[in-house]
Specification:
Belongs to the ATPase delta chain family. The protein is of the alpha+beta class and about 190 residues long. The chain has eight helices and four strands. The protein is globular and about 65 Å long.
Length: about 190
């Protein structure tokens, strides 16, 4: 990990821990989870929002005013809105994506949940998702939330990542493996 990434992760972790503790004290975790969904959607959909948090051309005051207006418009909880304003005033908004992820991770651990990243060649049906989720829950002993994406270059099969473990049953991986075996023979 690069030094810059390590510093960003540390900053995000401290803010996430603080927000979690404040929300837990105020018994506002469900609202924080809704806030995280809204922020994650905004980060994914709005290039202007991403520019605001990453661009050095905005002053602290401009970032703080913008974040305050965005938080009000998104109806974010007071805890998260205040945290974002503080981050803007300290020029730390660039860690917002890591903050969202760290906060989700902290909440998931407290709830006894784990997130599995699933990459498939075609979109999974609801029945397939439920079956995979139940299977992973039986293996991990925790409630599993699926984060599914589609990558048609897999040809078929799945790639499942849970924590540090990865299972690759894709046709692409099998073809690559077969290709390597054939190179060794001939």
């Amino acid at each position: 990990m690069s030094e810059t990434a390590s510093i960003s992760t540390g900053i995000a972790q401290r803010y996430a821990t603080a927000v979690y503790e404040l929300a837990q004290e105020a018994k506002a975790l469900p609202q924080i989870e809704k806030d995280l969904d809204a922020l994650q959607a905004a980060l994914a959909e709005s290039e202007d929002f991403r520019d605001l948090i990453h661009s050095p051309i905005y002053t602290r005051e401009q970032q703080a005013a913008s974040i305050s207006a965005i938080a009000k418009k998104m109806d974010l909880s007071q805890t998260l809105a205040s945290t974002l304003e503080l981050m803007a005033n300290k020029r730390r908004l660039f860690v917002l994506p890591q903050l969202v992820q760290n906060l989700r991770d902290i909440i998931a651990v407290e709830k006894g949940e784990v997130t599995a990243d699933v990459i498939s060649a075609k979109a999974l049906t609801k029945a397939q998702s439920e079956k995979l989720s139940k299977s992973l829950a039986a293996t991990t002993g925790k409630k599993v939330t699926l984060n599914a994406t589609v990558d048609d270059s897999l040809i078929g099969g799945l790639i499942v990542k849970v924590g540090s473990k990865m299972i690759d049953t894709s046709i692409r991986a099998k073809l690559n493996s077969l290709q390597n075996v054939m190179k060794e023979v001939g």
